[in-house]
Amino acid sequence: MIVCSQCGAIKKEVNHWFLAWTDKGRRRFCFMRMDDDPEMANEEGVQTLCGQWCLHQAVQKYTDSAEKSRDDLRRPSPEVLRSTAGLS
After folding, report:
1. CA-CA distance, 63 to 38, in Å (whole number)?
2. How far is CA 59 from the centre of its chain?
3. What is the pLDDT of residues 17-58, one digit of tens each?
4. CB of 18 within 8 A of CB of 49?
5. Where in the chain are the domains?
6. What's the pTM value of the predicted model, to 2 decimals?
7. Could you give the CA distance from residue 21 to residue 41 in angstroms, rounded to a whole number?
């Protein structure tokens, strides 16, 4: 049984499902139609998504987390802020 990673819908005979995964080495969100490689739905780290709305939600979560990670990398740590506070 295949279940949507976003909304919990169960896959039926005819649906327009997508597979999505994160290529962390390249910081990339990847997706494709499930019809292209249905066996990939069983691989670890692959999300099954029941349609465009759930795919959009998965992309939104990815971009939100990517933006947060990027902001965290740009923001100096509290230790750096304390050590440079008196260097005006």
Report:
1. 25
2. 6
3. 999 999 877 778 999 999 999 999 999 999 999 999 999 999
4. yes
5. 18-84
6. 0.71
7. 10
